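Question:
Write out your own:
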Amino acid sequence: MKRVGFIALIGDANVGKSTFINALIKTKVLAVSDKPQTTRENIKAIYNTDDAQLIFIDTPGFHKPHGKLGQIYIKDAKTAFDDADIIIYMVDISSKLNYDFIDKLRKVDRPVFVIMNKIDKLKSIEEYNRRSALYYKAFSELPRENFASIVAKDKEVPNYLIDKIKSLLPLSEPYFPDDMLLDHPIEFVYAEFIKEKCMRLCHDEVPHALHVKILNVEESDDEVEITADIIVEKASERAIVIGKQGRMISKIRRYSETSIEGFIGKKCHISLFVKVVENWREDMRRIVEYGYKE
């Protein structure tokens, strides 16, 4: 028996939720970029210790929904919020407080923790004291041990907060095997690596219409071969991803291979194809085909 439960990690887009998950489980399995909406669905990341299994639900960031796919994001985030045993609210401490959502959080009947991320963006300790005091005041009913200040990109994990979360969970049989990191297949992890490289290397030129679809995986004892489509909505986006004389797609492929090799410990060869599927985010058939839930 272990302390077992579901923890919803919620917050605005681009506050560092996926970065925090990657630091916690000590390996990169979720796409991380400086673009909002890198996380498009609820992803369960499994943190195992000798005495606990914490299932973190990495949710899409809060945003105004755009089209059918955007509505699915919002529905997924609400489902995670409603089903979780514990809620972690992650914020960018340098940004404006979302008082409307804070009011909703104060009314929930489950434990709430607040992680103030990106403290490195503040210019002085005085500014940190001022900004953190706003959250202490907004959540005045919470004890100070329910707060943490971190720089998630530096792989900081507030262990005292994790220990307290453990103590609040019931004893139960684990839901997942001890060696399982995600509730998604390995193909999902490969797609996450490729998607991250697309988002990072293309910067602001490619919107969130980008999707990576794994077509085939051939694996042996010493190497893996991956074939994937990079889906975009416009021919102009396809040209950006391919790049002049194929330089960008070649760089995406090389960087993805290096990251996946580091993750699986064997050689990786990737074949990438860039495909235009116009307005796929408005086409429910495509949304379901690409793995997003109705």
Q: What stands out?
A: Residues 102 and 138 are 7 Å apart (CA to CA). Confidence is low (pLDDT under 50) at residues 31-41. The longest helix spans residues 247-264. The first strand starts at residue 2 and ends at 10.
